[in-house]
């Protein structure tokens, strides 16, 4: 009998809670809600029951450490260098001041700036005005005796076909003079008189024309993009190679890959829908990362020195290289994310 009374007393609070939850909505809205017993309020904003001061301190310390770690990860993600450029956006001075950028040439350096279509008419009009002014100045000096002016020999800024300075000097200076002397004197001549001197001057003029034609043929401006790339590769081998004609060292390979990455990146700016070259860009970035990681395992000094020479930050090649599609698209189209 006593046990039954104790059981009913223990079940009474729960029965009261269940009955109050089953009341209709109208009655609960019209009548004031009955206060629940103190022991039935299970939700609380205070520390968990049974947690002492040491446990609470440990829990708060752990939460603060997790928040700090998450903030550091967010900051690292925001300052992550771009894997294509090799540095964080805004740090363009790394590429502009590096050795690779200084020893290689760009297409605009060889071919000049491309004139837009809308500006071509204005440029042609300006050129016509300059030519008319020059003709008017020539007409003003019509009464004066015309003095023959010798034209300066044509010297290209860059040479094609891998010609070095010694070979250019022979083709430009030695060969025309020798050919003119041979045309004048012949193979067995031993003296020069007035007739031979006039013949020598004519032959020298002819050789000067031949030299100018040869220099124009050897000019790098007549080459295509492959010719410019070949010129840059020779410069890279000369400056980054550890020996003469060194084409297999990691420094040379990483520099050539960086130059190709920059070239494809400039192409994708003009043709952002070129999916094939976009995939090639991804492959080249990962290949460069493998070569640089190998060099880091071989020599940390050479690795750090090469990163400065090619304008790449260490975080752009260390760890996992991630190239997100939206980031690559925004980089190609020049949109800041």
UniProtKB/TrEMBL annotation:
Keyword terms: Ribonucleoprotein, Ribosomal protein
Pfam family, any one: Ribosomal_S15
Xref: SMART domains: Ribosomal_S15
This protein's GO CC annotations: cytoplasm; ribonucleoprotein complex; ribosome
Gene3D superfamilies linked to this entry: S15/NS1, RNA-binding
InterPro entries: Ribosomal_uS15 (IPR000589), Ribosomal_uS15_bac-type (IPR005290), uS15_NS1_RNA-bd_sf (IPR009068)
BP terms from Gene Ontology: translation
CDD domains (alphabetical): Ribosomal_S15p_S13e (cd00353)
PROSITE patterns, alphabetized: RIBOSOMAL_S15
Molecular function per GO: structural constituent of ribosome
The organism's place on the tree of life at top rank: Eukaryota
Protein's UniProt keywords contain Ribonucleoprotein: yes
PANTHER family xref list: RIBOSOMAL PROTEIN S15, BACTERIAL AND ORGANELLAR, SMALL RIBOSOMAL SUBUNIT PROTEIN US15M
Entry's family note: Belongs to the universal ribosomal protein uS15 family.
Protein name: BY PROTMAP: gi|472585968|gb|EMS23510.1| mitochondrial small subunit ribosomal protein S28 [Rhodosporidium toruloides NP11] gi|647395634|emb|CDR37213.1| RHTO0S02e12090g1_1 [Rhodosporidium toruloides]
Gene transcribed to yield this protein: FGENESH: predicted gene_5.165
């Amino acid at each position: 009998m006593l046990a039954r009374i104790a059981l009913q007393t223990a079940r009474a609070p729960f029965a009261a809670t269940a009955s109050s939850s089953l009341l209709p909505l109208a009655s609960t809205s019209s009548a004031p809600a009955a206060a629940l017993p103190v022991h039935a309020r299970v939700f609380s904003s205070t520390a968990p029951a049974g947690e002492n001061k040491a446990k609470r301190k440990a829990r708060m310390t752990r939460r603060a450490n997790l928040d700090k770690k998450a903030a550091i990860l967010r900051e690292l993600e925001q300052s992550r260098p771009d894997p294509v450029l090799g540095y964080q956006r805004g740090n363009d001075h790394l590429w502009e001041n590096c050795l690779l950028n200084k020893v290689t040439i760009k297409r605009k350096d060889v071919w000049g700036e491309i004139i837009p279509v809308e500006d071509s008419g204005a440029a042609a009009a300006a050129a016509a005005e300059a030519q008319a002014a020059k003709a008017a100045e020539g007409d003003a000096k019509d009464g004066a005796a015309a003095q023959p002016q010798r034209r300066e020999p044509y010297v290209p800024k860059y040479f094609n076909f891998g010609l070095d300075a010694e070979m250019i000097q022979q083709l430009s200076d030695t060969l025309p003079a020798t050919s003119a002397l041979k045309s004048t004197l012949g193979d067995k001549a031993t003296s020069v008189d007035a007739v031979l001197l006039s013949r020598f001057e004519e032959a020298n003029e002819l050789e000067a024309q031949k030299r100018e034609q040869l220099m124009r043929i050897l000019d790098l401006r007549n080459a295509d993009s492959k010719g410019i790339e070949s010129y840059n590769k020779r410069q890279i081998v000369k400056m980054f190679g550890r020996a003469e004609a060194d084409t297999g060292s990691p420094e040379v390979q990483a520099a050539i890959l960086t130059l190709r990455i920059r070239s494809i990146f400039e192409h994708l700016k003009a043709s952002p829908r070129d999916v094939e070259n976009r995939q090639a860009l991804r492959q080249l970035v990962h290949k460069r990362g493998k070569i640089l990681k190998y060099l880091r395992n071989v020599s940390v000094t050479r690795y750090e020195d090469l990163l400065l020479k090619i304008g790449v930050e260490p975080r752009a090649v260390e760890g996992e290289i991630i190239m997100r599609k939206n980031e690559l698209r925004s980089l190609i189209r020049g949109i800041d994310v």
